[in-house]
């Protein structure tokens, strides 16, 4: 755009000409981020997980929401929550496929996405596992 193309009075042309770049001056640049410039902080490679679901419980073994696994590493997991609920720092995950309870710490949460560090299996609680595997798991 040039000042004469503005179609305004002399004052506007003078003002605009000070705002426009001079010849040979770059007003923008394009930066392409390559995968080599992205810093990977995980110790293990992520493995995508498809259509595996579960349920999240708080430390008092109360149902909070359902989730889908997004990806996993040996020590961590990324979840997609069924609804936006604030998660406590320490949670239990009931894995629908394995029928097991896992303890985890929430490292980050952004809306319905959350990242957790796995702590291991929760002590076997047959009554809780039966409740989570049944059709009315949110009712205590």
- Helix/strand structural class: mainly beta
Order of helices and strands: HEEEEEEEH
Order of the strands making up the biggest sheet: 2-3-4-7-6-5
Query: What's the total number of strands?
Result: 7
Low-confidence stretches: none
Computed CA radius of gyration, to the nearest angstrom:
26 Å
Helix content bin = 10-25%
Query: Residue-averaged pLDDT, rounded?
Result: 76
Instruction: Determine the N-to-C terminus distance.
Output: 68 Å
Which overall shape is indicated by the principal axes computed on the Cα atoms? elongated
State the helix count.
2
Q: Mind summarizing the main beta sheet?
A: 6 strands, antiparallel, barrel
Strand content: 35-45%
Counting copies of identical and different chains, the oligomeric state is single chain
Description:
The chain has helices at 10-19, 126-133; strands at residues 47-48, 53-57, 63-72, 76-81, 90-95, 100-110, 113-121. It is built from two helices and seven strands; from the N terminus they run αβββββββα. Strands 2-3-4-7-6-5 form a six-stranded antiparallel beta barrel. β2 (53-57) and β3 (63-72) form a beta hairpin. The radius of gyration is 26 Å and the shape is elongated. It has 140 residues and is mostly beta strands.
What is the secondary structure topology, with strand pairs?
Elements lengths: L9 H10 L27 E2 L4 E5 L5 E10 L3 E6 L8 E6 L4 E11 L2 E9 L4 H8 L7
Antiparallel strand pairs: 1-3, 2-3, 2-5, 3-4, 4-7, 5-6, 6-7
